[in-house]
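Write out the 3D structure for:
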Amino acid sequence: MTTRIIDDIFYSERLVRFSYCDPAGIVFYPQYFVMFNGLVEDWFNQGLGVNYAKYITEQRRGLPIVNLGCDFIAPSKIGEMITLGLRLEHLGTSSMKFEVTCSYKGVVRVRAKMVLVNMDLDKECAVPLPDELRGLMVGFREGKLDINRYHEDG
């Protein structure tokens, strides 16, 4: 899987696997939401340098989707290498609004807007984003994070 940041968008390429598809060989639409959740995890891990698993299991924070809108423009097919993109549109006290896309050869096939909320998993309520994480997110939104160099040199 290749990941990169260009300006304020995090990109991740992934192969459309058989397990994502219906019998016609096209992505079954709920699988896009699974992929978009995976994209947020990849963004945390590779884009922000924050261990997503530890954020959930040790800090006891979660990031559930609380609002989601999606346009399905064209199907994706088994065997294609698609590109998922994530852009942070708005950062609230405890919420984040993202635009996510799925493209193939530069043509957008799916576009979604989703709002996630930082949640205390034990108290089951929204809580403010930690200052350090907020700082990383602001840096990303401003195009100041450069993982491309890290991956090329590392």
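The first strand starts at residue 3 and ends at 6.
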